[in-house]
Amino acid sequence: MFYRDANIRPFDKKVWLSSPTMHGPELEYVKKAYETNWMSTIGENINEVERLASEYIGVKHAVALSSGTAALHMCMKLAGERLYGQPPMGHGSLEGHRVFCSDMTFDATVNPVVYEGGIPVFIDTERETWNMDPAALEKAFEIYPEVRLIVIAHLYGTPGKIDEIKKIAEAHNALVVEDAAESLGAIYKRKETGTFGDYAAISFNGNKIITGSSGGCFLTNNIEDANKVRKWSTQSRENAPWYQHEEIGFNYRMSNVIAGIIRGQFEYLDEHITQKTAIYNRYKEELGDLPVSVNPFENDKATPNFWLSCLLIDKDAMSKEIRGETEYAYIPEKGKSCPHEILEAISSINAEGRPIWKPMHMQPIYRMNPFITKSGNGRARTNAYISGAVEDIGMDIFSRGVCLPSDNKMTTEQQDIVIAVIRRCFD
Ligand SMILES: *Cc1c(COP(=O)(O)O)cnc(C)c1O
What we know:
The protein folds into two domains: 2-20 and 269-425, Alpha-Beta Complex (Aspartate Aminotransferase, domain 1), CATH 3.90.1150; 25-266, Type I PLP-dependent aspartate aminotransferase-like (Major domain) (Aspartate Aminotransferase, domain 2). It is built from 13 helices and 18 strands. The protein has helices at 25-35, 44-57, 68-84, 111-115, 134-143, 162-171, 223-232, 256-266, 269-286, 339-348, 382-387, 393-400, 412-425, and strands at residues 61-65, 98-102, 119-123, 149-153, 175-179, 187-188, 191-192, 199-203, 216-220, 292-294, 302-303, 310-313, 321-323, 328-330, 354-355, 371-373, 376-377, 401-403. Strand 4, helix 6 (162-171) and strand 5 form a beta-alpha-beta unit. The longest helix is centred in the middle third of the chain and has 18 residues, at 269-286. The two termini are 15 Å apart. The mean pLDDT is 95. Bound molecules: pyridoxal-5'-phosphate (PLP).
C-alpha cells in the first residue's frame, strides 16, 4: 500500500525520524586523537567538548560523560546527598524518598532516580508544551509536602513551563534536575535549557540534534559539584600516589574518540536547529487544513530546537484504535484517522515515524508508583476517569499523537510525499 496512491513510490533510501548527520571536521578530530594515541578518557577533545558545551549553553561547568543517562545519574546522586546526606554503603542517596518526575518522557529521565533508591511520583502533562503540568505539581505538593526534588524534561526540544515550575520549587524548598537531553539549543526567555535546573544533563546519543554516537554532559554553575562528578565518574580516585578510594565510584567518563565527533558536531548545531525548524514549520503549514495540530510551544517565551515534529489528531477526527501492552488494532474510517494508521502509511513509503513517548505511569515497571493529575490522585480514577471527571492528559496525547519523520537530511520533496501520505489517511 503506497499509501492508497499508485503515484506514490517508496523512498529508495529510508527517511529517518532523526539520524546522525556528519559533516567532516568530526573525522579530523578523531583522526588526531588516533594519530597522537589519545585513545582514552582524557585528551584535548574532551576538554574542548566541555568548553564548547558550557560556553554554548551558558553554564560555568560541563563535565563530559559516557551518556545522558550517566549525567542524570550524577544529578540525582548530587541532589540526594545535598538533601539527605551521604547514604550508608550499598544504599542510594535518594533511598526511600519520593521524587516528582515528568511523566510523558523517555524512561532515562526517571530510571536514575531509582538507581539512587528514590521513588518516582509521576506528574501529569499540560497541553501547552507537552511537559510537566505546574497545576499537577502543586497538587502533588499538597499530597506529598515532604518532597524536595523535581525532575523535569523538555520533550522533543520544547521548553516546559520553567517559570511556573521554578516558582513552585522555590515555595517548597525543592531542588530541580533538568533533563535537557532532547532540547540542546532550545531557548526559554533568552536563556538556554540546561541553565535552569540546580543540576542538568544533555545527551549526544545517536538520534539527538548533535551526536557523538553516544555521550552526554553534566552541567552546573558550582565548581564543587563539577569536581565531585569528575571524581565519581572516574572511579572516585582520591588525590594520592596510589589508587586510594574513600567513596564508591563509576566508570562514566567520555571517550576522547567520541569527544572528537561531538567537538566537530558543535560547529553544526545551529545549522541543524535551522533545518529542524524549517521541517516543523512546513508540517505546520501544509497540514494546517487537516483536523490535526503540531506539538505546541509557548510562542511568547520559548524557541524550541524542534528536534522532533509531532502531530496530534483532533479528538473528533480519531478513528477507533485500541492498544494492548504490546499490540494494537484499529478500524479505518472515512474522514478520520489514528496514530497507527498514519505510522503504517509513513512506513509503507520507507520513512520512519514513532508513537509519542508512552507515559511512565502507564509503563508496567512503574505501575505501582503514584501518578498525580491536576485534580489529584490519578490512580484512583477508575470511575472518575471513565466519567471524564479526572483528565489524564499524558494518556490522551499518547493515544492521539505521532512523531513524524524529522531528519535534517530529509529534502522538501521527500517531506512533500510524507505530507501527501498523511493527507491520504484522512480521505
Ligand atoms: C536520550 C534521552 C536521555 C538519555 O540520554 P542517553 O545519552 O541516551 O543516555 C534522557 N532523557 C531524555 C528525555 C532523552 O531523550
